[in-house]
Amino acid sequence: MTAGPARANSDQGPVARGGASGGTGRGAALTRRMVSTGSRFEGEFAYARAVCQGDWCFVAGTTGYDYKSMEMPEAAVDQARNALATIESSLSEAGFAMADVVRATYYIRDAGLAGEIGPALREAFGTVRPAATMLVAGLIAPEIKIEIEVTALRRPARDAR
């Protein structure tokens, strides 16, 4: 049920920052950092598990596969726990925490699964309380019952609780 180690890649080079939302300085260069779980899907579908730049980290839709064994649990709550463990590992690798998550989107195969996954969401986000949306969607494989994506904004040190 645990996620494999995430690996960061910062080979993307500096990305110019500027404008009103620039943060620490107009024109300051930031490095775009990509994090990979090593999932074959990342290579097959040409995406990174997470892309981080500055104080922001965007984690791609993450399903409940245990990426070490490539097994998918049957229960939606276990799939949610696996997905959240993968997300937590990816955020940690990039220097973020689950407490930094400000936005979450949950895609579920069937509306009836909402109650089943609730305990996993409360375990991960009970005190964080990100802005969230849950959608019923056709997912890419029949065994997948939930997919989760999150956006994190690094909190200033004084806000780290």
Structure notes:
- This protein has 161 residues and is of the alpha+beta class.
- It has one domain (7-14, 29-159): 60s Ribosomal Protein L30, Chain: A.
- Helices cover 22% and strands 29% of the residues.
- It contains three helices and nine strands, in the order E-E-E-E-H-E-E-H-E-H-E-E.
- Strands 1-4-5-6-9-7-8 form a seven-stranded mixed beta sheet, with helices on one face. The chain has a two-stranded antiparallel ribbon with strand order 2-3.
- A hairpin with a 2-residue loop joins strand 5 (50-53) and strand 6 (56-63).
- Helix 2 (76-93) packs parallel to helix 3.
- The radius of gyration is 16 Å and the shape is globular.
- The two termini are 26 Å apart.
What are the key terms here?
161 residues; alpha+beta; 60s Ribosomal Protein L30, Chain: A; 3 helices; globular; disordered N terminus
CATH fold assignment:
60s Ribosomal Protein L30, Chain: A
Low-confidence stretches: 1-5, 10-27
Q: Characterize the biggest β-sheet.
A: 7 strands, mixed
Helical stretch count? 3
Alpha carbon gyration radius: 16 Å
Sequence of secondary-structure elements: EEEEHEEHEHEE
Question: What is the secondary structure topology, with strand pairs?
Answer:
Layout: E1 7-9, E2 14-16, E3 29-31, E4 33-36, H1 40-44, E5 50-53, E6 56-63, H2 76-93, E7 101-108, H3 114-125, E8 131-136, E9 146-153
Parallel strand pairs: 7-8
Antiparallel strand pairs: 1-4, 2-3, 4-5, 5-6, 6-9, 7-9
Helix pairs in contact: 2-3
